[in-house]
Amino acid sequence: MFKEYFQYKGISFPGLIYSPRALEAAHNDFQVLDDDVFNVTYQKSGTVWMLEILSLIRSDGDPSWCRTVPNWDRAPWFETVLGLGRAQRNPPPRLISSHLPVQLFAKSFFSSKAKVIYTVRNPKDVLVSLYHFAQIFRPYKDPGSLDQFLDKFLEGDVPFGSWFDHVRGWLQLRGRDNFFCISYEELQQDLRGSVERLCAFLGRRLGPAALDAVVANASFAAMRRNRMSNFSLSPAFILDVRRTPFLRKGIAGDWKNHLTAEQSARFDRVYRERMAGLGVAFPWDAP
Ligand code: A3P
So what's the ipTM on this one? Predict the structure, then answer.
């Protein structure tokens, strides 16, 4: 099948689940409520992991909601055609997911008290994860070889645009009371401590047993088992998880198994150039 992307304000989106009209509505008309909590990421940075953590925090660690309602209904991606309607229908307080770059995000957020949690991940791992995902997610073009896809990724010639622009754009919100940034690597290193920090940001008090339950039910193994979280319910014409599971490896540093020294150096050159002056030390920047 020949797949085309359309452009919305300079960013590529695949057809089928996105449309210019829904993007326009998400951007201009979506009414953000003060008690909304947004789970925002560049794709393949730990979106569904954070979605699970936030769902579990919301339920004081009780996994019933996560085990009975698909993640895309618990925290819909409000920029998709179906997710927009779902987000509008869900009762407050709402959890909402998004991969939108900041300049396309709901305008009404910026005059609200709603909260954004922005999860970042080592872009080399994002590249590798996206490379595998593009092979099973039908709306996406075939990524070709990893070497070809690496160049496209570095140029930002992929859906949702450049990782560098996305991260730089969202991190402009640092310092705001309603913005919280955390990395996939921090979640990996200390999930319990990360959940505690998230609870503090959200103004939720969870006792030790509830914290333990959040950590246990948001583990890679538990999520892989949960049909409401592992995308085994999604139709194969959208996502073919029989080929590669959505929850593929769930580790930090898998890029080392995929990129050659030359490819890694090529990546580093662009990374240094594009991230210069941002003034943020990410876990993967450590020597
Ligand atoms: P890999 O492809 O490297 O395994 P997103 O949800 O933004 O699309 O990100 C998907 C990535 O997050 C996948 O990475 C997936 O395995 C990983 N992931 C999802 N849940 C996880 C969990 N509980 N623990 C660790 N990684 C998780």
Answer: 0.99
